[in-house]
Automatic annotation (TrEMBL), chain A:
Transmembrane segment boundaries: 20-40, 84-107, 119-137, 200-224, 251-272
Keyword S-adenosyl-L-methionine: no
Domain (ABC transmembrane type-1): residue spans on this chain: 80-269
Topology with respect to the bilayer: Multi-pass membrane protein
Name this polypeptide is given: Peptide/nickel transport system permease protein
GO biological process: transmembrane transport
Keywords in alphabetical order: Cell membrane, Membrane, Transmembrane, Transmembrane helix, Transport
Keyword Lipid metabolism: no
Pfam families: BPD_transp_1
Species this protein is from: Phyllobacterium myrsinacearum
A Gene Ontology cellular-component term: plasma membrane
From TrEMBL, chain B:
Entry keyword annotation includes Cell membrane: yes
Superkingdom as given in the UniProt entry: Bacteria
Key words of the record: Cell membrane, Membrane, Transmembrane, Transmembrane helix, Transport
Protein family according to the UniProt entry: Belongs to the binding-protein-dependent transport system permease family.
Protein name as it appears in the record: Peptide/nickel transport system permease protein
Transmembrane feature ranges: 9-30, 95-121, 133-156, 235-257, 285-307
Annotated localization: Cell membrane
Domain (ABC transmembrane type-1) ranges: 95-300
Subcellular location, principal: membrane
Cellular component annotations (GO), alphabetically ordered: plasma membrane
GO MF annotations, alphabetized: dipeptide transmembrane transporter activity
Topology term for the membrane: Multi-pass membrane protein
Organism: Phyllobacterium myrsinacearum
């Protein structure tokens, strides 16, 4: 019966945390913008208007137009879908594979644990960009390959966090009691270990999500991410590069969209950590 | 100490071996026939067969792997298909741009981040602390290639202080070379500095809460002395860890930044190789970068032992 009260306490604590409130607001607005782009954008993203190209912001085009006369605001709105989708799926891949691995290593220890740590070393030797380079060299560029590259990099991150959290939970008394009652490691992990580390996983998920947004933008910028005609923030910046002297607004707004999104997610992550993980809060403040 | 060092070195070597197997599988086995992939759809059967022979693709897999690895060990990275020169020559030429770029960025990031972290930690809870950390928070969110574009717009296009891109080569003089690395290093290093400053601050605050710090203060040491002599040294472990990770990021980051500034480094090389399907070059560059990441992580692990005497006793 104590769970709802704890949650209520956490929620009221969360809403008095400045980072959390600002982060949540920005993230909610981003999600709203992405959702809105499915039904409405100021202009159709595929509509070219060569006569109206490279126009600075105006009342007709709030954020100006690009070198094909496309509306930048509309492209940013549609591009947000791509960023969110790539980052979200790579977090799901990372957590979906990494968390069970980490839990398994913590439950078994010994050789399996050692093997997991060495696997982590191996994956960490390939920065996400490098895996993307290899994957693209063979399979060609695309959003799916970007997701795979970022997702692979997320696996050891979640594995490490889950392992660490589980190792600290195993010696607890209620776990020992569950063990004494004859429950299997798997059952204990599912019933007790996993629910008690959800806080940490949520915080890590937020951090990896924001890193995923940055990584996706970087990959699309160098042409390894999603391909035209689907707008993406990274590629908008790539296209802005040669126009920087004539139309700096083309580079400014997609970049700001990335910064605000990542900032929002980071603040949300910080806020969540403060609320859900009091130990970390004491260390940080 | 010796145990710790030899274990870390062994792990480093094993990781490198495993990484080489991954690279080999992804770039030589997954494509089915690399020769066909490299030559494209319209290649004649004769050309494909000739390239297969040249690349040794008619040999069994294990033999191919061992001859590739054996080659790498003696510096033979194979021959580039598009440039018709040994891959090693291409790499040494390009590394003369990428390595200074990564090192200057790392240097910039460190000399900015550690003083900022110290400054913020020593003024914990004040307006200056929150202000500095707010700036760092924004810095963390800035993609380096976007920052690079802004720098180009302000310093190259508007003020015309530095070149917007390109590299004159070190033969044109050290200053001319360095000048074209200024903006790229700032673009690469500053966002990393924001991360490192936050880590330095929180590591310091962590240490400042320890009993021995209170003891040091109680025995009459000034705040300053405690901060520099005791806290900073003990806060170095997390800082070093992040520095090691950052070097990997910076190396990979050069891949993107070199494209912004048209720098003829490893990153540009690897992209040209991808578009030309020159898999041997991709393989060589990826292996080299992976080996560097592993080596740097090993050095970081070993430096823990130097910084923290407690680790020396552990195996």
């Amino acid at each position: 019966m104590s769970a709802p009260t704890e949650w209520q306490a956490n929620i009221s604590k969360a809403f008095s945390n400045r980072s959390f409130v600002i982060g949540l607001t920005i993230t909610a607005l981003l999600a709203l913008m992405a959702a809105l782009s499915f039904v409405w954008t100021p202009y159709a993203v595929g509509s070219f208007d060569i006569l109206g190209k490279l126009k600075p912001p105006s009342s007709a085009h709030w954020l100006g137009t690009d070198h094909f006369g496309r509306d930048i605001l509309s492209m940013i709105m549609v591009g947000s879908r791509n960023s969110i989708a790539v980052a979200l799926v790579s977090v799901i891949i990372g957590a979906g594979i990494g968390v069970p691995l980490g839990l398994w290593a913590a439950a078994r220890g010994g050789l399996i644990d050692e093997a997991l740590m060495r696997f982590n070393d191996l994956v960490f030797a390939f920065p996400a960009l490098l895996s993307a380079v290899m994957i693209t060299a063979v399979f060609g560029p695309g959003a799916v390959n970007a997701i795979i590259a970022i997702g692979i990099f997320n696996i050891p991150v979640f594995a490490r966090v889950a392992r660490g959290a589980a190792l600290s939970l195993w010696p607890r008394e209620y776990i020992l009691a569950a063990r004494a009652s004859g429950k299997s490691s798997l059952l204990i992990t599912i019933e007790h270990i996993l629910p008690n580390m959800m806080n940490i996983l949520v915080v890590q998920g937020t951090i990896q999500f924001s890193l995923g947004i940055l990584a996706e933008a970087g990959l699309s910028y160098v042409g390894l991410g999603s391909q035209p005609p689907m707008p993406s923030w990274g590629r908008m910046l790539f296209e802005a590069q040669t126009m920087i002297g004539m139309a700096p607004h083309m580079a400014l707004y997609p970049g700001l969209a990335i910064v605000i999104t990542v900032l929002g997610l980071n603040l949300l992550g910080d806020g969540l950590r403060d609320v859900l993980d009091p130990k970390m809060r004491r260390e940080r403040s | 100490m010796l145990n710790y060092v030899s274990k870390r070195i062994l792990i480093g070597i094993l990781t490198l071996l495993a990484a080489s197997i991954v690279v080999f599988i992804v770039l030589e086995i997954v494509p089915g026939d690399p020769a066909r992939l490299m030559l494209g759809m319209n290649a004649t059967e004769d050309a494909v067969q000739a390239l297969q022979q040249q690349m040794g693709l008619d040999q069994p897999l294990l033999i191919r792997y061992f001859s590739w690895i054996g080659g790498l060990l003696v510096g033979d990275f194979g021959k580039s298909y598009t440039y018709s020169v040994p891959v090693l020559n291409l790499i040494t030429e390009r590394i003369a741009v990428s390595l200074p770029l990564a090192l200057i960025s790392l240097f910039l990031s460190t000399i900015i981040a550690i003083p900022v972290g110290l400054f913020s930690a020593s003024r914990r809870g004040t307006m200056t602390d929150s202000g500095t950390m707010a700036i760092a928070q924004v810095g963390v969110a800035i993609p380096n290639f976007w920052f690079a574009l802004l720098l180009v717009y302000v310093f190259a296009v508007s003020l015309r202080l530095v070149p917007a891109g390109g590299f004159p080569g070190w033969n044109a003089g050290v200053w001319a070379g360095l000048k074209s690395l200024i903006l790229p290093s700032i673009a690469l290093g500053l966002p990393q500095a924001a991360i490192l400053a936050r880590v330095t601050r929180s590591a310091l605050l962590d240490v400042l809460g320890e009993d021995y710090i209170r003891t040091a203060r109680a025995k009459g040491l000034t705040r300053r002395k405690v901060l520099y002599r005791h806290a900073l040294r003990n806060a170095l472990i997390p800082v070093l860890t992040i520095l090691g990770l950052q070097f990997a990021f910076l190396l990979a980051g050069t891949i993107i930044i070199e494209n912004v500034f048209y720098l003829p480094g490893l990153g540009r090389l690897v992209f040209q190789a991808i578009t030309q399907r020159d898999l041997i070059v991709v393989e060589g560059v990826v292996m080299l970068l992976v080996a560097t990441v592993i080596l740097v992580n090993l050095l970081v692990d070993l430096s823990y032992a130097l910084v923290d005497p407690r680790l020396r006793g552990r195996s």
